[in-house]
Every structure is written in structure tokens, then in C-alpha cells.
Structure to design on (400 residues):
């Protein structure tokens, strides 16, 4: 059918249509720059300890010190602006310009409880035009599972947000219940305001965390110890250190021995949101799709339709938000449409670790505590937000 319409003026229409057509012609053609970026990324990726050691060696060498300082400054700027594509790794020939992300601002009414009704369902409709080129074509559009935006795969490629590996994931999951998060929703750091981001950056600088590096378990625990001592002016307790180690395991589902920078950043972002914003403000961050999934989860658990579920059911639903891969097998007897139970092998599984030590009496008390719809939302909102990224990592591990 071709291009039908554009929302911009005539000149911009012609430019955007030309770029869109070029993107579709590219198809699945392998870009030489992709391999080059992969090679560069492979050589640059390392742990925090390796980065510090390399920085010390280069500092002692002398001539390369200005370059290292410039690279470090650029990394901090990308962190501040929420950008994830490095300029030296981004081939701008025939590419769309990445968007300038604008961080949200807190509104006066954010702390007031939002009106989210259980009975009144919301009509969820995806946009009709690609978010990038802003044109409609007969080509397939990939919807985001969190927001209403849709995208052409060719446009995502030209933005630098879709590489060979991620292309397979998008095509396989975008039109399933598992879904795919767009580059806005995949980045939890973009939920932070400028003031909140400044606070996070100051903490990272104080703890000598280098942006865009991987963190080992020792790095992660050292960071958590420093943050805890800075906040509470006392050392972290042994139980808290064990909980931090479990969180590291949840952020490293493939057992690589380190966590990726974007997973660490997402974890720290959602932790900061929990710390600085009340639950009502977090509830206002939920999209219509997320609210509908929450309704479906609650209604599936409310078997007698009295408007209440047990605490145990609420906890199992909390774990269920992190099941993003259809090939995982259910681990609990609660079937939740659109969300699904979590994997038995997950570090946050309710049947793992110390959760087995609960006494029957404690379990009965937990199951007996009634949770209504507003309480269900408040207790799950942080986990719903933390489940946005496409990564298999658990960015906020629910308590067992």
C-alpha cells in the first residue's frame, strides 16, 4: 500500500519517507559497522577492577592520559543524558539521529493517590505510526509491551538500537505475550528526574564506580557497603550482605561472574525511585498496558471475586512479573494471564534459599492476610516497573 500519510510538513515528509524506504531496503543485510562495533565493544568490555588497572597503567604512561580523561568525561555525560550508544561505536552514515532524552519532572499532584479502578477496564491501543519515522507503511510494526509506541525494524536499525542478536529477540517476542520493550521503556534510568540522576551520579563518583563497566561480586558488595555506610553511618550487617549477594546472583542469571553495566544501572535506578518517591508517585509511572496486566493478575487470583486475595498469592504474583521467556517452566500453581509464573530456577524463586525455612504457622498467617486491589498495586508497583527491561536479569529481587 505504500506510505499513506505524515504528521510533519511537506519537506520533512519527503525526508522521512526516503529514510524509511532506505531502512526497509536494508532488511536483514549485515552491516560491516556492526561487526566493527561488536569487536570494539568486546575489547572495551571488562570488569571494574580491570578498568581501574588499565586506567592506572595509562596514567603512568603519560601521553594517553588526556584521552582517558576525555573518554571518562564522555561516559559520565552519556550517563547523565541517558544515552547508551557510544559516539565512537555509532556509524552515523545513513543513520537517524538518536533522540535527545528529556528527563521527567515531578508534578505537584504526583504524591496524591491515582484513581485506578479494578472494575473499569482500560482500552489499550497501539500507535498507528512508527515512533521514529512517523509514517505508516504496509511493513510490520513492532509494538512495545510497556507503552503504545510501535517501530519499523529498519528504523530501529538506523537508530542503532537493533543489532543482529537483538533483531532475533524482537521478531520472536514483539507479537507474543512475552513482548518486547522499546528503547525508552527498556532504560529504567530514564524514569529519574535531573535531581535524582544527579544524586545517583554523586553516589557513583563517591564509590569510585566507573560508568559502562561490568561489576564483579566483590565490586558490587564493596559498593553496597559504601552506600550503606554513607546513608546510615554504620557498617552493613551480615544478613544485609547476604541479601546483596543474592541480588547480585539475580542480576547475573547466566552465572558469568559479573553483571552488565545496564543491569546495574537499572537496579540502582529502581532502588533510588523506591527511596525518594512515595508509592503513589510510582503508581503514576505505570502505563495503561501495565495497569491492565495488573488487573488481569489480580482477577485471576481473586477466585471468589470478593475483591481480596491472600498475601501469599500477592507475593507469588510479585515474583511472576519477571518471567519474560516463554520457554521457562511454571514453578507455582498460580496461572496469571499476560504475566505468568516465574521460573523455578530463578534466584528469586519462592522455593529457594531461606524461604523453605518458614514454619507452617507463619505461612498460614501470610496466606490469611487479605490484600485488596489498591494494596496489591502498591506492593507490586516497584516490581512491575523493574520488569520493564528486556534483559533476563532480575533488577529488583522480591523477598522470598
Amino acid at each position: 500500500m505504500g506510505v499513506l500519510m505524515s504528521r510533519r510538513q511537506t519537506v520533512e515528509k519527503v525526508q522521512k519517507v526516503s529514510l524509511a524506504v532506505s531502512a526497509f531496503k536494508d532488511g536483514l543485510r549485515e552491516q560491516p559497522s556492526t561487526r566493527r562495533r561488536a569487536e570494539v565493544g568486546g575489547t572495551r568490555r571488562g570488569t571494574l577492577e580491570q578498568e581501574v588497572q588499565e586506567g592506572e597503567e595509562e596514567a603512568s604512561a603519560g601521553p594517553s592520559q588526556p584521552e582517558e580523561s576525555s573518554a571518562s568525561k564522555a561516559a559520565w555525560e552519556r550517563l547523565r543524558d541517558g544515552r547508551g550508544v557510544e559516539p565512537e561505536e555509532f556509524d552515523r552514515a545513513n543513520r537517524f539521529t538518536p533522540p535527545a532524552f528529556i528527563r521527567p519532572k515531578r508534578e505537584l499532584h504526583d504524591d496524591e493517590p491515582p484513581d485506578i479502578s479494578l472494575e473499569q477496564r482500560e482500552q489499550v491501543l497501539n500507535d498507528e505510526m512508527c515512533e521514529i519515522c512517523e509514517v505508516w507503511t504496509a511493513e510490520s510494526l513492532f509494538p512495545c509491551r510497556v507503552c503504545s509506541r510501535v517501530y519499523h525494524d529498519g528504523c530501529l536499525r538506523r537508530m542503532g538500537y537493533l543489532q543482529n542478536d537483538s533483531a532475533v529477540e524482537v521478531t520472536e517476542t514483539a507479537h507474543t505475550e512475552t513482548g518486547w520493550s522499546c528503547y525508552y521503556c527498556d532504560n529504567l534510568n530514564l524514569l529519574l528526574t535531573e535531581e535524582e540522576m544527579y544524586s545517583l551520579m554523586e553516589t557513583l563518583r563517591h564509590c569510585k564506580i566507573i560508568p559502562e563497566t561490568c561489576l564483579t561480586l566483590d565490586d558490587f558488595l564493596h559498593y553496597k557497603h559504601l552506600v550503606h555506610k554513607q546513608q546510615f553511618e554504620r557498617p552493613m550487617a551480615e544478613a544485609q550482605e547476604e541479601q546483596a549477594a543474592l541480588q547480585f546472583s539475580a542480576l547475573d542469571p547466566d552465572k558469568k561472574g559479573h553483571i552488565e553495566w545496564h543491569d546495574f544501572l537499572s537496579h540502582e535506578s529502581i532502588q533510588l525511585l523506591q527511596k525518594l518517591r512515595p508509592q503513589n508517585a510510582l503508581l503514576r509511572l505505570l502505563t495503561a498496558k501495565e495497569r491492565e496486566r495488573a488487573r488481569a493478575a489480580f482477577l485471576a487470583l481473586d477466585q471468589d471475586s470478593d475483591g481480596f486475595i491472600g498475601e501469599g498469592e500477592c507475593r507469588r504474583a510479585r515474583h511472576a512479573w519477571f518471567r519474560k521467556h516463554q520457554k521457562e517452566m511454571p514453578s507455582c500453581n498460580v496461572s496469571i494471564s499476560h504475566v505468568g509464573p516465574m521460573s523455578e530456577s530463578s534466584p528469586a524463586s519462592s522455593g529457594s534459599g531461606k524461604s523453605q525455612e518458614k514454619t507452617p504457622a507463619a505461612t498460614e498467617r501470610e496466606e490469611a492476610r487479605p490484600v485488596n486491589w489498591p494494596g496489591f498495586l502498591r506492593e507490586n508497583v516497584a516490581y512491575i516497573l523493574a520488569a520493564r527491561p528486556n534483559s533476563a536479569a532480575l533488577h529488583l529481587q522480591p523477598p522470598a
Summary: The chain has 15 helices and six strands.
